[in-house]
């Protein structure tokens, strides 16, 4: 799939504008089947009272814990090509989440939610002074399982990833836009881009938010502990690398003294969609 697009052009757009939309990556059928799986997972989590979010913003962190087949969404061929270009071949997954900012009756608000208000997800900076270090080290790949463009679409401020501080509110009000794309598209964007979740709507808008970074950056979650032992045994080389298994510090100097096990060449045709 990547052959249809120029990774250089995608990278250039991300670096200059802060984002890039690449359409026609996944089929409508694939998107619909994935949505069915996510709705089932959400329902089960709500029954177990381990649900995260609210009746206006449903979130499933680490969605592949519940169905390991969904892990393929973290290493689509085009995602691998773009993240390798932006970071390097040892890039890792920092935060995976399935999101839907819709109004869904019957869901009580959980203890926590996220994504509201103007913010960045850059993990390098001074939170006290609200300063961001440049260049950014983290990047998102948003997989649109349903159309973006309505009331509940993610809003962003173009080129704001180039700023060291949050833009003034009046500037944001004038310049902000909504992310627009068709289902099956992928939106790549710099985590330093100022953005916020759109206003809740009764329209469903499932999407996958995967954030990536360099191997030495800590993930939001300990995937080695979150996955079951039988799931870990099924991981291929690429998945182990992405989930930080190749960058776990050694317990002593007997085996090795370097944290990273460099990524080796693999048969992408077998491991990437």
Detailed description of the structure:
By secondary structure, the protein is of the alpha+beta class. The chain has one domain (2-251, 258-271): Sandwich (Jelly Rolls). It has eight helices and twelve strands. The protein has helices spanning 7-17, 28-47, 77-86, 169-175, 223-226, 229-233, 237-242, 268-271, and strands at residues 19-22, 52-54, 57-61, 92-100, 125-126, 131-132, 139-144, 155-156, 177-178, 186-190, 195-196, 207-213. Helix 1 packs across helix 3 (77-86).
In short:
The chain has 8 helices and 12 strands. It is of the alpha+beta class.
> What is the CA-atom radius of gyration, in angstroms?
18 Å
At the fourth level of CATH, the homologous superfamily is q2cbj1_9rhob like domain
Strand order of the largest sheet: 1-10-7-12-4-3-2
Number of helices: 8
Query: Which architecture would the CATH scheme give at its second level?
Result: Sandwich
Largest sheet: 7 strands, antiparallel
What is the strand tally? 12
The N- and C-terminal alpha carbons lie at a distance of: 8 Å
Query: Would you tell me the structural class of the helices and strands?
Result: alpha+beta
The count of domains is 1
Instruction: Please state the average pLDDT score.
Output: 86
Task: Please bin the fraction of helical residues.
Answer: 10-25%
Low-pLDDT segments, ≥5 res? 265-273
Taken as a percent bin, the fraction of beta residues is 15-25%
Net shape: globular
| H and E string | HEHEEHEEEEEHEEEEHHHH
CATH class descriptor: Mainly Beta
CATH topology: Jelly Rolls
């Amino acid at each position: 799939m990547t052959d249809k697009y120029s990774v250089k052009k995608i990278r250039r757009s991300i670096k200059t504008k802060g984002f890039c939309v690449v359409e026609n990556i996944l089929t409508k059928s694939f998107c619909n089947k994935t949505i069915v799986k996510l709705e089932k997972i959400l329902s089960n989590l709500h029954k177990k009272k381990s649900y995260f979010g609210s009746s206006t913003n449903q979130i499933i962190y680490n969605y592949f814990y519940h169905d390991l087949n969904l892990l393929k969404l973290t290493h689509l061929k085009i995602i691998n090509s773009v993240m390798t270009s932006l970071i390097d071949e040892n890039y890792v997954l920092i935060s995976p989440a399935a999101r839907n900012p819709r109004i869904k009756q019957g869901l009580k608000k959980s203890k926590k939610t996220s994504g509201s208000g103007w913010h960045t997800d850059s993990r390098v900076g001074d939170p006290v002074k609200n300063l961001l270090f440049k260049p950014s080290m983290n990047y998102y790949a948003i997989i649109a399982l349903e159309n973006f463009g309505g009331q509940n679409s993610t809003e962003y401020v173009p080129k704001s990833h180039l700023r060291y501080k949050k833009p003034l509110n009046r500037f944001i009000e004038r310049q902000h836009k909504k992310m627009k794309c068709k289902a099956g598209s992928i939106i790549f964007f710099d985590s330093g881009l100022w953005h916020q979740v759109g206003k809740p709507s009764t329209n469903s808008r499932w999407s996958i938010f995967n954030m990536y970074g360099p191997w030495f950056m800590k993930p939001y979650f300990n995937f080695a502990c979150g996955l079951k032992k039988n799931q870990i045994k099924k991981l291929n080389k690429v998945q182990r690398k992405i989930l930080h298994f190749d960058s776990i510090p050694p317990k002593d100097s007997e085996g090795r003294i370097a944290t990273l096990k460099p990524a080796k060449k693999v048969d992408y045709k077998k491991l990437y969609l």
